[in-house]
Design a protein that fits this description.
Layout: H1 15-28, H2 33-54, E1 57-59, E2 74-76, H3 83-98, H4 101-118, H5 121-132, H6 135-148, H7 155-170, H8 175-188, H9 199-211, H10 226-252, H11 275-299, H12 318-321, H13 323-342, H14 348-360, H15 363-382, H16 384-397, H17 406-418, H18 424-441, H19 446-459, H20 470-477, H21 486-514
Length: about 525
């Protein structure tokens, strides 16, 4: 059935839909997201004082002498209610906000996106795509684009997710359904991709250090999971598209534009392109080729200035580490080229006004980030996230399972830990020294262990407020549904989490233990202690 037909069908209130309604109802009992993060921040301070007074601690799995490891080898709950804690809060409150990683990325990227938006380029580009695209393929294309965008780090969150909402609105479909499909691909499918991304060498390095606790000479490559990632790209595209078409969009029902911010609704979106707009798109295409050529010159040649200056590596390099700069350059270049051609941007003042307009639309997001940044910082200071992660890992260790079925439990526990420790690298840095040596000793290779971990880490990204960009997605969504709450967003994304973790775990088991395929080039499945 064509996914464009779905909004014509009344949503059926089956058992699963009623379950999602219940999740949404419970979630929306929560206060406004800004208030929620403020309450959580205060709650963390109170809980830290209680746990610090009780002396809660766990054994640090990292080797003695490693960065951050205490002299006694313990991870202890740190109280923020004592004198040191209160002073730390007061002296770091502003720094927590300004150093919150997603904030700078979003602000810099939106400066460029604003030029493209105000020039009229995004409107013309969206209309060009949706008016000529087969309706059956729109959802599939959005989910697939979300997965592939992970190669370029934050571009999926900053650009693709709001763009997907605009595409769906232009088609007369519910914009939140488009946003959900893109969010599922970008974040739920975080560990599926056709190419090696910036996270791969980072995770491989952590896995290698953990493996060397057992085998001092063990090497884990950045390509350790590449075969499985490529295959997973198509699995997640199919599953994400089916969930979008047959569960999420029918549940959302017909869209009511009266709930939206009027500034984002453009009736012009469904009108055919005019001659000057086509001319503008041609000039934007020329600018696009110029930016791509510049990108290639900085990365492809051996002398490329943005390759790793020490190793010459292209992936673990300033090119990808600073990719948000390319997002800025890209949208400013093509936006200005389009605006100059169609007459919407004649002077530098037009460009500056466009940048300012883009930032002015992020007021709610900036307020939310202030409180979210405090919560995340407090959570890290107290060591409660690390204690939660280690405790969950120890539960798996004590279960006594040794067969391949162990990986189903392993993936589930990684998914649960991810709800409270949202960073993939931070979570793995703490849990890998337990999981990797433990599973190596019962015969499994670090590369396979890392691939399984990434499934658990990815699938719950889309339902946890601890994920760095959750607040941004919520801010985008409230532009289409002004009264939307945290519960609505979680209920909308929960079907993806359920189907992703079930199908992806089974796929991993079949790929690795039934068919015997390696998860990457030169990556073994089993390890002999």
């Amino acid at each position: 059935m064509a996914d464009g037909q779905q909004q014509a069908i009344e949503p059926r209130r089956n058992a699963f839909t009623r379950f999602l309604d219940g999740v949404e109802w419970l979630g929306n009992l929560l206060p406004h997201p800004v208030t929620l993060f403020a309450i959580l921040a205060v709650g963390i301070v109170v809980v830290s004082g209680l746990f610090g007074w009780m002396g809660v601690a766990v054994v640090d799995p990292r080797p003695a002498g490693a960065p951050g490891v205490a002299e006694d080898g313990m991870i202890r709950a740190v109280s923020l209610l004592d004198g040191d804690g209160v002073r730390r809060i007061f002296t770091n409150l502003v720094g927590n906000f300004t150093s919150f990683a997603p904030l700078g990325v979003v602000l810099v990227a939106m400066i460029g996106v604003g030029v493209a938006e105000q020039s009229g380029l995004l409107s013309a580009a969206v209309r060009s795509m949706v008016l000529g695209a087969p309706p059956k393929l729109v959802t599939v294309a959005i989910v697939f684009a979300g997965i592939v965008s992970n190669t370029a780090s934050e571009v999926g969150y900053v650009v693709l997710i709001p763009l997907a909402a605009a595409i769906y609105y232009a088609l007369g479909r519910h914009p939140l359904a488009g946003m959900a499909a893109a969010f599922a691909g970008v974040s739920g499918g975080y560990s599926a991709n056709l190419l090696i991304g910036t996270i791969d060498p980072l995770l491989a390095g952590i896995t290698q250090e953990a493996a060397r606790l057992i085998d001092p000479d063990y090497v884990v490559l950045a390509t350790a999971n590449w075969y499985f990632m490529v295959a997973s790209t198509f699995l997640i595209t199919i599953v994400g598209s089916l969930v979008s078409i047959y569960i999420v969009e029918p549940k959302l029902g017909k869209y009511n534009p009266s709930q939206a911010d009027p500034t984002i609704l453009d009736d012009h979106m469904m009108q055919p392109l005019e001659q000057n707009e086509r001319k503008g798109l041609r000039w934007a295409g020329i600018a696009l080729l110029g930016v791509l050529g510049l990108m290639a010159l900085t990365l492809v040649p051996d002398w490329g200035i943005l390759r790793n200056p020490e190793t010459g590596d292209r992936i673990d390099s300033p090119f990808f580490q600073g990719f948000v700069v390319w997002i800025l350059i890209f949208f400013v270049a093509i936006g200005y080229a389009y605006g100059r051609a169609v007459g919407t941007m004649k002077t530098d003042r037009d460009v500056i006004d466009a940048m300012a307009a883009a930032l002015s639309s992020l007021g709610l997001y900036i307020v939310l980030v202030f409180f979210a940044a405090q919560f995340v910082a407090f959570f890290g200071w107290t060591n409660l996230g690390a204690i939660t992660a280690v405790t969950g890992a120890q539960f798996l260790q004590e279960s006594g399972l040794t067969g391949p079925a162990l990986f189903f439990f392993f993936i589930l526990i990684c998914a649960m830990i991810n709800l409270s420790l949202g960073s993939a690298s931070a979570q793995w840095a703490v849990t890998a020294p337990i999981f990797v040596p433990m599973l190596m000793l019962i015969g499994y290779a670090p590369e396979a262990i890392q691939a399984a971990y990434r499934i658990g880490d990815s699938t719950t990204n889309i339902i946890t407020p601890m994920m760095s960009y959750f607040g941004l997605i919520l801010a985008w969504a409230t532009r289409y549904e002004r009264n939307l709450g945290v519960g609505t967003l979680i209920a909308m994304m929960l079907p993806y989490t359920i189907f992703f973790i079930i199908t992806w775990s089974i796929f991993f088991f079949v790929w690795t233990f039934v068919l015997g395929f390696p998860v990457g080039p030169g990556s073994p499945t089993y390890y002999t202690p």
